[in-house]
Amino acid sequence: MQIQETEDNKCSLCWNEVEGFGYDPKPLTSGICCDLCNEELVIPHRIMISAQRGDQLKLFEM
Ligand SMILES: [Zn+2]
């Protein structure tokens, strides 16, 4: 199933064009983000949030 709610396929973080469906950049920002921003910005941000919640032991003991 393909969901295309917006015609705007620009990354919300770097404004490059997103190939495919992109990634969900929440909670960093809204819209979509590209592969690179997902890996370099969104995932580290999520890890940081998890660490702040005290989940870091789970993350690193897996
Ligand atoms: Zn990007």
Sheet/helix structural class:
mainly alpha
Report the portion of residues in β strands. under 5%
Low-confidence stretches: none
- How large is the radius of gyration? 14 Å
Specify the biggest β-sheet.
none
Number of domains: 1
What would you say about this model in short?
This protein is an all-alpha fold.
What does this structure look like?
- By secondary structure, the protein is mostly helical.
- The protein has one domain.
- 39% of the residues lie in helices and 0% in strands.
- The protein has 2 helices and no strands.
- The protein is elongated and about 35 Å long.
- The chain starts with 34 loop residues before the first helix and ends with a helix.
- The structure holds zinc ion.
- Zinc ion binds next to α1.
Looking at this protein, list some descriptive labels.
62 residues; mainly alpha; 2 helices
Write the layout of secondary structure elements.
Blueprint: H1 35-52, H2 56-61
The structure holds zinc ion.
Zinc ion is lined by residues 11, 13-14, 16, 33-34, 36-37.
